[in-house]
Sequence to fold (115 residues):
Amino acid sequence: MITLVILAIGISAATALALAMTRHHEQCYGRNAAARRQPVRRRLEGWGLILIAAGLAVFTDGWGRGLVLVAGVVGLAAPLAAGLFAWRPAWAGRVIAAGWLAVVAGLCGLVFGFA
Fold:
């Protein structure tokens, strides 16, 4: 269960990091979109999501397996995010929002013992 949550968070993080690039930002929101502070915000969001996923993985599986799990999930999430930009670039914002919902689900799972 927690592995799927970490995968959702990883996909969301990879999508946020991709949106930090001007090319993908213009692909999603157009050239006229205000993108002045967007790359910094998206980078912080992406790396923050990766850190949260690492925290969840380490808390549930320990340092050894948790870090390996996060490295594998982030490695798997990057091609999935690239596929998202090839298939439906307009959904990138929704995927990032779903990642934050996965963070809430993962934290609730830890608190209530679902993990």
In short: The mean pLDDT is 86.
